[in-house]
């Protein structure tokens, strides 16, 4: 079904003096075929009977629900997918005369583009890339309509039950794989830490033994020096005593 129209109300009647509300653009026709540029916001003057307000375009951001549709991915999986389209009128003149119903045209373009882009991607591909591709494709086609697609968001993706079960099994297998990898990495880190601890303990033990031997050798050397000094002093005293006699 066509998307809802952007008109906030019926077309205004030309009474000569008109006030264009904020975030709106009015397209005026003179004598049926002569076009006047979209009227700016605020106070405007028209010629009664000759000028007719033909279109009222809203310049606000427009939200359109893209109906659910089926699409086939690159790996031959049929999906039911819908989304939300955010638009804005950039050129009121093109939006009025470029296409009969811009919103309906953009909605149909979004649906066909969605099917086309899904056919290029596998089921495991991220939806962000799909959204960006749809926005780029819509903007390339809707430029002549004076409408720019700001963003496209996928609301729901319905996957067949069997595919959903296989995806769930794949997710569980991936989780078990990550758990096994983490457990093995933990065991490896634990073994490395134990080995590092043993190595440090051996190094500290050898350094302690070395320091003990050095201290023991130094003590023995000092003891020998003390004994030698004592003997030397005893000999000197004995020699002095003999010299006196």
Share of helix, binned: 40-55%
Radius of gyration: 45 Å
CATH architecture grouping of the domain at 61-159: 2-Layer Sandwich
Structural class, from helix and strand content?
alpha+beta
Number of helices: 4
Number of strands: 8
Catalogue the unreliable spans. Answer: 1-9
Name the CATH superfamily assignment of the domain at 61-159.
Answer: Band 7 domain
Shape: elongated
What would the CATH topology of the domain at 61-159 be?
A: Tetrahydropterin Synthase, Chain A
**Strand line-up across the major sheet:** 3-2-5
Oligomer: single chain
Helix-strand pattern: EEEEEEEHHHEH
Q: Strand count, sense and closure of the main sheet?
A: 3 strands, antiparallel
Strand content: 25-35%
The CATH top-level class label of the domain at 61-159 = Alpha Beta
Task: Quote the average pLDDT.
Answer: 78
How far apart, in Å, are the first and last alpha carbons? 143 Å
